[in-house]
Amino acid sequence: MATPLGWSKAGSGSVCLALDQLRDVIESQEELIHQLRNVEEKAAHAKTKVLLAKEEEKLQFALGEVEVLSKQLEKEKLAFEKALSSVKSKVLQESSKKDQLITKCNGRREARALHHGYINGLFPNHPVPVSKAGFHSNTCPQLRIQAGPGGPHLRKGLKGPGRPRK
User: Fold this and answer.
1) Please, where are the H alpha helices in the chain?
2) Distance from CA of residue 69 to its chain's centroid?
3) What is d(CA 115, CA 136) in angstroms, rounded to the nearest whole number?
4) Tens digits of pLDDT across the chain (166 residues)
5) Residue 119: how many other CB atoms lie within 10 Å
6) Sign of torsion over alpha carbons 31, 35, 40, 42
7) Amino acid 142: pLDDT
8) The whole model's pTM is what?
9) What is the CA radius of gyration of the chain?
10) Measured between alpha carbons, how far is residue 11 from residues 3, 6, 17, 157 in Å?
11) pLDDT at residue 93, rounded to an integer
């Protein structure tokens, strides 16, 4: 081995020893650096694990809330469907009642139209019906209302709707 400039051959053994010791120190420092990096990685990994555990806990809580809200939504949906069914049933009943009333009203209108047709002479081929009491069908003995071509009027002395009499 060649001796570096400025070094004497007599102390070359001590220089080699110093270089070996220096290499050992460098290797041990590199090993310590490597271990330190491993410790840092493990610490970062542990920190990440803690954060992951916290986030997992939050996620589990949120999933629990979603489950509770889903159940509540299902209950409300069932209640709404029940109420809607009830309302539909009532609407159907009311519609049926309305149809019955319209049918009844139309029947009465037709009967009244025929009655007024007899009274006013619109049906000359048909005789004017007379009640069993002998009254003409367009009079009412209790109120003494008579129907004529101008419409029903009250006899003298009684007040009629819209036309006061003296």
Assistant:
1) 12-119
2) 14
3) 11
4) 555 555 555 556 788 888 999 999 999 999 999 999 999 999 999 999 999 999 999 999 999 999 999 999 999 999 999 999 999 999 999 999 999 999 988 888 787 777 666 665 555 555 555 555 555 555 444 444 445 555 555 444 444 555 555 5
5) 20
6) positive
7) 44
8) 0.40
9) 57
10) 10, 11, 10, 159
11) 96
Distance of CA 81 to the CA centre of its chain: 11
| Cα-based torsion angle of the residue sequence 152, 154, 160, 166 in order, rounded to the nearest 10 degrees | 140
CB 153 within 8 A of CB 146: yes
C-alpha to C-alpha distance for 148 and 136, rounded to whole angstroms: 12
Strand partners, 113: none
Q: What angle do CA 123, 126, 128 make, to 5 degrees?
A: 95
147 sits in which H/E element: strand 145-148
Closest CA to 151 of 161, 141, 165, 164: 161
Residues ≥6 apart with Cβ < 8 Å to 119: 128, 137, 138, 147
- State both tokens at 60: 């589990």
Whole-number pLDDT of residue 145: 47
Q: Could you give the strand order of the β-sheet that contains 145-148, starting from the edge strand earlier in sequence?
A: 139-140, 145-148, 151-154
Phi, psi of 148 (to 5 degrees): -135, -175
